[in-house]
Specification:
Elements lengths: L11 E4 L16 E7 L5 E7 L51 H23 L6 H9 L5 H21 L1 H8 L1 H26 L15 H12 L10 H4 L14 H4 L3 H17 L2 H29 L1 H8 L7 H4 L16 H15 L1 H11 L2
Antiparallel strand pairs: 1-3, 2-3
Helix pairs in contact: 3-5, 3-10, 4-5, 5-14, 6-9, 9-10, 10-11
Length: 376
């Protein structure tokens, strides 16, 4: 990033957490002064002030090394002598085993077991749950599986995106953990119902093409599906926050997959949908893909809006050097990849994803058999 984009005649404060604070006094009379404030959560606030009356020489580095977001160096020169970009976000998919608490993961295991038990009793089990009654009510809206599937997607998308949009207000009323429980408790049954209905009716539509016997198509679909899971949004990896063991946060990610696209979940979903629509080749698959892609495209706009509200100027800076379309910011020079960029993917979460994706493929017959037993 050019130095001119970092400094201006008017002071500018770039907060990691999106809240403005009073800057500390400058520690020197340099023309470009760097201030930092360490918060209790380890967040760092950076501010650059330009003194137009002074001459900016060529110091080896302008600021000390600070853990801005994921620990990236700030204001340092690279090998070519150019100033590095200011990190305003967090390091994606970072996982340090030494910092993990065994007790937290014990809590996570217990919560996961309790959630699955409650989901089975309250929703899945036809004798006690409401899932069957819900799917029967939706199915009565039309004899077309495509229409029913789109209705299910609409209900899920409205609830999921609606609760996400109300997150700030909801967390203010009942707290971060309680709101996460509410969000998951409502979204999870609706998502499960939609997935099961799709599995059970995926071959009920009108066949538009048939390429399953074409050589190489199966391999293409498999590779595309595998790659799509590497576009999961980095917050998905924070399982302790997902389960509300740790206090949930609205993170501003900056490294890893975010360098490629600011909305990796949308890109991954599009890849997955195109691959499975190609393989199935009927109207049900087209309807499912249309619903999923539409929901994620709305999430692009809504996600940017929510991040702008929460993180303010920091997000605006991040937005300028990232893109929605994959690789667009890299190709037009707004995103500068570090030489060791590949290391941002050599992390435990991506190893787990690799095993999970292969395991899910192997478990396809088991998932299909489980769905068929529900008769949804």
């Amino acid at each position: 990033m050019a130095l001119s984009s970092l400094v201006s005649a008017r002071p500018s404060l770039l907060p990691i957490a999106g809240r403005r604070v009073d800057p500390l006094q400058p520690d020197s009379a340099n023309s470009l002064s760097c201030f930092r404030r360490q918060l209790t959560q380890g967040q760092v606030f950076l501010k650059f002030r330009w003194n137009r009356a002074s001459y900016l020489g060529s110091p080896s580095r302008l600021c000390s090394r600070v853990p801005a977001g994921g620990g990236a160096s700030v204001g340092e020169r690279d090998d070519e002598g150019e100033l590095g970009e200011v990190s305003v976000g967090e390091d994606s998919a970072a996982f340090e085993l030494a910092k993990q608490s065994i007790l937290s993961w014990v809590y996570f295991t217990g919560i996961l077991g309790a959630v699955l038990f409650a989901l089975n009793v309250v929703w899945i089990d036809p004798s006690t749950g409401f899932g069957t009654a819900f799917i029967n009510a939706v199915s009565r809206t039309s004899n077309s599986p495509e229409v029913v599937l789109l209705v299910l997607f609409s209900v899920f998308a409205t609830v999921h995106s609606g609760l996400a949009s109300l997150r700030d207000a909801g967390e203010g009323l009942i707290g971060e953990r309680a709101y996460r429980v509410l969000f998951a408790g409502v979204s999870l049954p609706l998502a499960l119902t939609t997935i099961v209905y799709f599995i059970n009716h995926r071959y009920d539509g009108t066949q538009l093409w048939q390429v399953q016997g074409v050589q190489g198509i199966h391999e293409l679909v498999w590779v595309a599906s595998f790659v799509s899971f590497f576009f999961l949004y980095p917050s998905t990896f924070n399982l302790l926050e997902v389960a509300a063991v740790d206090k949930p946060k609205m993170h501003l990610w900056e490294t890893g997959i975010i360098r490629i696209t600011r909305h990796p979940q949308m890109v991954g979903q599009v890849i997955w949908c195109l691959a499975h629509t190609l393989w199935i080749g009927n109207t049900v698959a087209v309807a499912a893909s249309a619903g999923l892609i539409a929901h994620h495209l709305f999430g692009v706009w809504n996600g940017d809006r929510r991040l702008a509200v929460r993180h303010g100027e920091a997000f605006e800076l991040l937005k300028k050097r990232t893109s929605v379309l994959p690789f667009a910011a890299i190709l037009d020079g707004r995103q500068k990849l570090p030489k060791d960029y590949y290391k941002e993917f050599l992390r435990l979460p991506y190893l787990v994803i690799s095993f999970f994706t292969v395991g899910a493929y192997i478990a396809h017959p088991l998932m299909q058999a489980s769905s068929y037993r529900l008769h949804w």
